[in-house]
Amino acid sequence: MSYRLATTTTASSSTTTTMTSHLSQCGASGSDTDEKKSCRYTLNPEARTFIPGARQHSNSPSNITDRQATANPSFTPRTFQPGKKKPVPEAVKKKIDSAFATFNNQNFPDAEKAFRVILHENKNRLSPFDKQNITVGLARSLKEQTREKQLEACSLLEELRLEGELTRFGASTIYNLDLTLSLCEEALGKHFDAETRLLKLRKKRRNADEETLCRPSHYYPADITNARLWQSMGKHTLAETLLLNLKKELDQRLQPKPYASAAPKLQKYLDNVNLALVRHWDAKKKYELAEKLLLEMSRKHPNNSEKVLCEPCGHHDIDLTLARLWQTIGKYKRTEKLLLNMSGKRPGASEEELCQPSWQHETDLALIRYWELTGKYKLAEKLLLSLCGKHPDASEEILCKPCWQHNLDLALARLWEAEGKYHLSERLLLNMIGKHSNDREEILSVSSGHHDIDLTLALLWQAMHKPELTERLLLNMSGKSLNDSEESLCKPAGHHDIDLALIFFWKTTGKHERFQTLLRRCCELYHSDECQLTLLSMSAGKAGFLEMISRYPENANTLLVTSIHYFTLACEHITNDDLKSGNDHLVKALEIVDSVLEKYPFIAGAYSQKGHCLRMLGRSEQEWKEWFIRALSLDPGREYRCKTDFWRSNEATALQKVLASQVK
């Protein structure tokens, strides 16, 4: 069995693609197990077209040389292929394959241990290639864990880099090293370094023009990774252009019947590029383009019947991405039908059947998430507990014991929080990081290094009215402490969601100067819509707001915050028993948010704002709740980030008075 390493998506990213990495393509023995051996020599399928008279660099092979016959196994660019390899003992080979399989199952701590053991026990038996390959595997396992381990991964790779030569662009010739190092740098927030490394790997100069930067390099893993990095850096035009160029080139290469052994690999690259393009369009709210491409990839047409559209195409990532897209744009029936079909279940089946795991964890989690969004908490919890190997009637001790599949444990903690089962959620989260609720505050507030767990715990404590723990944990996650100077406290940590959580916490606890200073600095650093909306919202409901907002060009944020302004005024009037003025302002707030939805139909905050307006106007629960569901579908993370929107501070009191007036 050849061992391969797959890139996995991380929690902060919102929305990154999954692609197959080329680490150790050739397997533990160094041979390509899929290669046909019908002939000894074949033309190099990756060679460039020969152009007579084209200038060549002195230290690169000529185009004629590129076209020379090569012996099987299939061609691998020499730049990324280390020196001679020697056979690996069968027992060691099995351990190597097992380590990579463990990584691909996203069990990163165990994969890390396995790689370390192999390197320690087989120092003199591993070829240079295998040693390099396993070291890169170890680095990838470290990269998926804590910041300290990400730093260790960078050190390991930098040390390994000294053993190999560099291309004339400055990229390492050790296979897959720089690609992995760029991912580690990105995880650490070193986007400039990661971008520079990827450009060298793609044989591009940083000062090249846009056309050159977006031209495929024919090293597709680096091209796709570069496009994804540009997306996270906000360079959306570059990302989209590169992905479209990659799609065009791969489509062209697959049009005529390609070199037999290259076809599956090219098709896999094309699928990865198409999915990356879909996710890019999804992030940019170009939903029609995303849906059209996904249906094309599924060999379906928009005019097909509902039954045909909801049948899985057999490609798991395509089907799952389509289901998530339909959920985002509000096509809920299709979402559920497709996910149930992917799970081998019938719509309308018994609860017992619906809550049986399919053991396709991503599919099961997507179905759980859909049920959670639509308020089917019982189904969501029962299926999630089944996945964790637990029963709903088990003791609290068993229920709160981690199953040690990180994504399942975290999903269960968040589901319990959404259901208001705070005690269960807290106990599970603390067990995940080896703590107990009776521990001293100094211990509880120490960051575990797992940002997704820590941030979920901090927001949970805020909902449980434990402000001291919330603040200390958020500061520790930011590398700060309560004793730091005001200047240090108000310096962005470099992690968008952590900084925003601290901003909202300080606002709700009345630390206005800190809140405003950190917010302004975050706006300068991140340039995100959420930061701009928060900054504008500081003045909502105050005198002079309309004059201030008129200085900004009209966009979704300015319109939305104007609606929030009138909503805030309405809450104040209602709280002061002026129901008529309050109602007038609510009508105005609703009118403005409706215009936002008409002009910008996929703004999550606008759906949420309309839900708040309708609820305050006394509409039915079914009517206003639907808008909150749509908001969560468009932005699933908002329920964890927006628990304490400060412009809602008077809403609870006003809502009680509205409900009381209806009873009368």
How would you describe this structure to a colleague?
The protein has 664 residues and is mainly alpha-helical. Helix content is 60%, strand content 1%. It has 35 helices and two strands. The chain has helices spanning 63-66, 90-104, 108-121, 128-143, 147-161, 177-187, 191-201, 210-213, 220-232, 236-254, 263-283, 287-297, 306-309, 316-328, 332-342, 351-354, 361-373, 377-387, 396-399, 406-418, 422-432, 441-444, 451-463, 467-477, 486-489, 496-508, 512-526, 529-537, 545-549, 556-575, 579-599, 604-616, 621-634, 638-641, 651-663; strands spanning 41-43, 69-71. A two-stranded antiparallel ribbon has the order 1-2. Helix 2 packs antiparallel against helix 3. The longest helix has 21 residues, at 263-283. The model is unreliable at 1-83 (pLDDT under 50).
How would the global form be characterised?
globular
As a whole number of angstroms, the C-alpha radius of gyration is: 27 Å
Task: Estimate the strand proportion.
Answer: under 5%
Please state the average pLDDT score: 83
Main pleated sheet: 2 strands, antiparallel
Order of the strands making up the biggest sheet: 1-2
Whole-Å distance between the termini?
74 Å
Topology:
Layout: E1 41-43, H1 63-66, E2 69-71, H2 90-104, H3 108-121, H4 128-143, H5 147-161, H6 177-187, H7 191-201, H8 210-213, H9 220-232, H10 236-254, H11 263-283, H12 287-297, H13 306-309, H14 316-328, H15 332-342, H16 351-354, H17 361-373, H18 377-387, H19 396-399, H20 406-418, H21 422-432, H22 441-444, H23 451-463, H24 467-477, H25 486-489, H26 496-508, H27 512-526, H28 529-537, H29 545-549, H30 556-575, H31 579-599, H32 604-616, H33 621-634, H34 638-641, H35 651-663
Antiparallel strand pairs: 1-2
